[in-house]
Amino acid sequence: MRRAIFPGSFDPLTLGHHDIIMRGITLFDEIIIAIGKNADKKYMFSLEKRMQFIEEAFKDVPSIKVKTYQGLTVDFCKKEDANFILRGLRNPADFEFEKAIAHTNRKLSEIETVFLLTSSGKSYISSSIVRDVIRNNGDYTGLVPNSVRK
């Protein structure tokens, strides 16, 4: 089985995340969307709400699972018997940041990181932008899947 982990905080799930996951599922038998728990980070949405957003968005895709984890992503990959980490790239800055993490993960384990470029119409979307739009009462509905819209 070709299983990939798609890690992130998903605060909230965006159309950019959704794009990468739906394109990634054509490459893998299963994708585990792994919501990382970080006690030092302030989230806009609770862990339960983020899980709910994701589970609802992918309820019709049985090969996509949602789990939470703490610690190193490579340790979670080993626990879940996943040989791949799936990541999305929006721009050159993402590439530089993700490249360093991918090299570190490869040094720590045999896990391969697979990068997909976000579709051009979604490459500007980030969770931090969505949170800012929500905080300022803007219309964020064109940035997130239906499951996140109020």
From TrEMBL:
Keyword 4Fe-4S: no
Protein family per UniProt: Belongs to the bacterial CoaD family.
Assembly description: Homohexamer.
Major site of localization recorded for this protein: cytoplasm
Organism annotation: Maribacter orientalis
GO cellular component: cytoplasm
Residue span(s) of domain Cytidyltransferase-like: 5-132
Cell compartment(s), UniProt: Cytoplasm
Binding residues annotated for ATP, in chain numbering: S9, F10, H17, G88, L89, R90, E98, K122, S123, Y124, I125, S126, S127, S128
GO biological process terms held by the UniProt record: coenzyme A biosynthetic process
InterPro entries on file: Cyt_trans-like, PPAT, Rossmann-like_a/b/a_fold
Gene3D superfamilies hit by this protein: HUPs
This protein's name: Phosphopantetheine adenylyltransferase
Binding site for substrate: S9, K41, T73, R87
Listed cofactors: Mg(2+)
